[in-house]
Automatic annotation (TrEMBL):
Keywords on record: Repeat, WD repeat
GO biological-process terms attached to the record: regulation of DNA-templated transcription
PANTHER family cross-referenced by the UniProt entry: TOPLESS-LIKE PROTEIN (PTHR44083:SF30), TOPLESS-RELATED PROTEIN 1-RELATED (PTHR44083)
PROSITE patterns: CTLH, LISH
Segments forming domain CTLH: 38-95
Protein known as: Protein TPR1-like isoform X1
Annotated TM spans: none
InterPro entries: CTLH_C, LisH, Topless_fam, TPR1-like_2nd
Originating species: Cucumis melo var. makuwa
UniProt-listed Pfam families: TPR1-like_2nd
Record carries keyword Repeat: yes
Length: 216
């Protein structure tokens, strides 16, 4: 059986392991999100790298809300800042404006003037050539400064900018008390199939057969 002392929790991890082995990744990620059992950092980073920011937020909300603590707030802010940067890099001013109005405005309560700074960036005439990005995000006992020069015509520089923001997001995830104990998959000493066989044997019942041959 799994090494986790909680049998229900251990069983859920076995199910997650089984789903991944069967290439049922979408179902596995949904179960992670719905149970809040395991935060899949690899999957989360893949979403950010693919610019799937809405999907990243949807996954994150299964574990923490935007106002739960300062770390959660900064994670959500980082995601939306990436969304804003990406829109600017693509020259989509209207999309960037919508991000400010719908996604970034909520953070103005933590750092008054944040929205004004974002709108000033939107009004820059030469932002398609060189973009100087300065946002100071202040929270109680915590301040994050990001200052970088980004050549918007260069994907490499945008990629590097994303990397910097993602590193800060990762640090906040690792420091977030709501995600403690949820960032690593525990060692499992069995599989779901073996566990099922053992459970049926202990009850003196023959395991049910299935038409589909599952991989172990």
């Amino acid at each position: 059986m799994a090494t986790d002392p909680d049998p229900d929790r251990a069983l859920l991890f076995l199910i997650l392991q089984f789903l991944d082995h069967q290439n049922l990744s979408e179902t596995a990620r949904s179960l992670e999100c719905e149970t809040g059992l395991f935060f899949n950092m690899t999957y989360f980073e893949e979403l950010l790298n693919c610019c799937a920011y809405n999907e990243a937020e949807s996954y994150l909300c299964g574990f923490t809300d935007i106002h739960d603590n300062i770390y959660s707030t900064k994670i959500y802010f980082g995601i939306r800042k990436l969304k804003f940067l990406e829109a600017l890099a693509d020259g989509e001013r209207e999309v960037a404006r919508e991000v400010v109005e719908k996604d970034i405005e909520i953070f103005d309560q933590y750092n008054p003037g944040l929205v004004q700074q974002a709108f000033e960036l939107l009004q820059m005439d030469n932002f398609m050539q060189v973009f100087k990005f300065l946002i100071i995000f202040s929270l109680p006992n915590l301040k994050l400064r990001i200052w970088s020069h980004i050549l918007l015509s260069s994907y490499k520089n945008m990629k590097e900018a994303r990397k910097v923001v993602m590193e800060n997001i990762k640090k906040c995830i690792e420091a977030n008390p709501l995600l403690q104990g949820k960032l690593s998959f525990p060692p499992l000493s069995t599989t779901l199939q073996a566990f099922y066989m053992e459970a049926m044997a202990s009850r003196g019942r023959a395991p049910a057969t299935c038409r589909r041959d599952f991989k172990d």
